[in-house]
Structure formats: structure tokens, C-alpha cells
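Re: weekly structure request thread

Next one in the queue (68 aa):
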Amino acid sequence: MKAFGRALAVAGVAVVLAVGFPLNAQAAGGTFIYHTQPGNVPHVLNNPQDEQCYNVGAGEAPGPSGPP
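Done, posted below.
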């Protein structure tokens, strides 16, 4: 009986995860200020576009990197 309950719980979680997540990516709006190391260099990202990935790591120029 425990195995059936666990299987039911796993199936329920799978359904929630499949239905609950959005199918598209929406970026937050506004101005984002972040700093990269070394040197604590400030960068600004203004109003990121929806469904874009942005490079914000060390040595990367900020800006769209293309679709995911």
C-alpha cells in the first residue's frame, strides 16, 4: 500500500510540474545594476527583452546572447 501511495504522489507531483510552469520566459522590467570582478566594475542592463539570455559574468559584455 505504501508503494501505491508513493507512486500516486510522484504522479501528482509530475502533473503539477508539467501544468504549473509557464511555457514562455518573461523578463523583469526596469534597470538592473550589477558589478563584475575583478575590479568591481559596474554594469547597467536596461529593460531586458523577453525570451532572451544575457551574459553578465566576468569578462562578458552585457547584451543579448540570442534565444535559449
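The radius of gyration is 20 Å. The CA atoms of residues 6 and 12 lie 10 Å apart.
Next request, please.
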